Amino acid sequence: MKKLILLFAAMLFAVNVNLAGDFKGRANGDDKCAYCCPKCHHCSDKAGECSKDKCAMVKNGTYCCKKDMTTSEVEGKCPKCGKSMHKVECKKGAEKK
Protein backbone atom coordinates (compact mmCIF):
# COMPACT_ATOMS: atom_id res chain seq x y z
CA MET A 1 0.00 0.00 0.00
CA LYS A 2 2.88 2.36 0.85
CA LYS A 3 4.42 1.73 -2.58
CA LEU A 4 1.13 2.56 -4.27
CA ILE A 5 0.81 5.85 -2.38
CA LEU A 6 4.43 6.80 -3.16
CA LEU A 7 3.92 5.96 -6.84
CA PHE A 8 0.77 8.07 -6.98
CA ALA A 9 2.53 11.00 -5.24
CA ALA A 10 5.47 10.78 -7.67
CA MET A 11 3.14 10.79 -10.68
CA LEU A 12 1.22 13.77 -9.32
CA PHE A 13 4.48 15.67 -8.78
CA ALA A 14 5.69 14.88 -12.32
CA VAL A 15 2.44 16.13 -13.89
CA ASN A 16 2.57 19.31 -11.81
CA VAL A 17 6.18 20.05 -12.86
CA ASN A 18 5.32 19.42 -16.53
CA LEU A 19 2.34 21.80 -16.48
CA ALA A 20 4.34 24.52 -14.73
CA GLY A 21 6.84 24.52 -17.61
CA ASP A 22 4.06 25.10 -20.18
CA PHE A 23 3.02 28.43 -18.65
CA LYS A 24 6.50 29.86 -18.03
CA GLY A 25 6.51 32.09 -21.15
CA ARG A 26 3.05 33.48 -20.49
CA ALA A 27 3.92 34.46 -16.93
CA ASN A 28 6.76 36.64 -18.25
CA GLY A 29 4.48 38.43 -20.73
CA ASP A 30 5.93 36.63 -23.76
CA ASP A 31 2.50 35.82 -25.22
CA LYS A 32 2.69 38.62 -27.82
CA CYS A 33 2.48 37.38 -31.35
CA ALA A 34 4.87 38.29 -34.16
CA TYR A 35 2.32 39.02 -36.91
CA CYS A 36 -1.14 40.55 -36.81
CA CYS A 37 -4.02 41.13 -39.23
CA PRO A 38 -4.59 44.90 -39.68
CA LYS A 39 -8.36 44.40 -40.07
CA CYS A 40 -9.40 41.91 -37.39
CA HIS A 41 -6.22 41.80 -35.19
CA HIS A 42 -5.92 38.01 -35.61
CA CYS A 43 -2.58 36.78 -34.16
CA SER A 44 -0.02 34.49 -35.80
CA ASP A 45 3.59 33.49 -35.23
CA LYS A 46 4.18 33.32 -39.00
CA ALA A 47 3.83 35.81 -41.84
CA GLY A 48 1.24 35.07 -44.50
CA GLU A 49 -2.43 35.62 -45.17
CA CYS A 50 -5.12 36.07 -42.52
CA SER A 51 -7.46 33.09 -42.52
CA LYS A 52 -10.46 35.30 -41.71
CA ASP A 53 -10.00 38.39 -43.93
CA LYS A 54 -7.61 37.02 -46.59
CA CYS A 55 -5.36 40.08 -46.26
CA ALA A 56 -1.60 40.09 -45.60
CA MET A 57 -0.45 39.78 -41.99
CA VAL A 58 1.90 42.57 -40.88
CA LYS A 59 4.52 42.66 -38.13
CA ASN A 60 3.15 43.54 -34.73
CA GLY A 61 3.79 47.26 -34.14
CA THR A 62 3.75 48.29 -37.82
CA TYR A 63 1.64 51.29 -38.91
CA CYS A 64 -1.12 50.65 -41.46
CA CYS A 65 -3.70 52.69 -43.39
CA LYS A 66 -7.24 51.43 -42.74
CA LYS A 67 -8.44 52.46 -46.21
CA ASP A 68 -5.90 50.90 -48.60
CA MET A 69 -3.77 48.70 -46.25
CA THR A 70 -0.50 50.52 -47.00
CA THR A 71 2.09 49.74 -44.29
CA SER A 72 4.95 51.74 -42.83
CA GLU A 73 7.46 51.46 -39.98
CA VAL A 74 6.87 55.08 -38.92
CA GLU A 75 3.75 56.94 -37.81
CA GLY A 76 2.31 59.56 -40.13
CA LYS A 77 0.02 60.01 -43.12
CA CYS A 78 -0.65 57.40 -45.80
CA PRO A 79 1.34 58.25 -48.97
CA LYS A 80 -1.55 57.07 -51.19
CA CYS A 81 -4.68 58.60 -49.63
CA GLY A 82 -3.34 61.04 -47.00
CA LYS A 83 -5.26 59.55 -44.05
CA SER A 84 -3.50 58.94 -40.75
CA MET A 85 -1.98 55.50 -40.23
CA HIS A 86 -2.80 53.46 -37.12
CA LYS A 87 -0.46 51.16 -35.20
CA VAL A 88 -1.27 47.47 -35.67
CA GLU A 89 -1.03 45.63 -32.36
CA CYS A 90 -2.56 42.33 -31.39
CA LYS A 91 -5.10 42.73 -28.67
CA LYS A 92 -4.36 40.89 -25.45
CA GLY A 93 -6.01 37.50 -25.54
CA ALA A 94 -6.39 37.54 -29.33
CA GLU A 95 -6.70 34.14 -30.93
CA LYS A 96 -3.50 32.66 -32.36
CA LYS A 97 -3.33 30.55 -35.53
What topology does this entry show?
Elements: H1 2-22, H2 24-27, E1 35-36, E2 43-44, E3 58-59, E4 63-64, E5 71-72, E6 86-87
Antiparallel strand pairs: 1-2, 1-3, 4-5, 4-6
Structure in a nutshell:
With 97 residues, the protein is α+β, with helices and mostly antiparallel strands. It is built from two helices and six strands. It folds into two domains: 1-31, no CATH class; 33-97, no CATH class.
Description:
With 97 residues, this protein is of the alpha+beta class. It folds into two domains: 1-31, no CATH class; 33-97, no CATH class. 26% of the residues lie in helices and 12% in strands. The chain is built from two helices and six strands, in the order ααββββββ. The protein has helices spanning 2-22, 24-27, and strands at residues 35-36, 43-44, 58-59, 63-64, 71-72, 86-87. A three-stranded antiparallel beta sheet has the order 2-1-3, with no helix packed on it. Strands 5-4-6 form a three-stranded antiparallel beta sheet, with no helix packed on it. A hairpin with a 6-residue loop joins β1 and β2 (43-44).
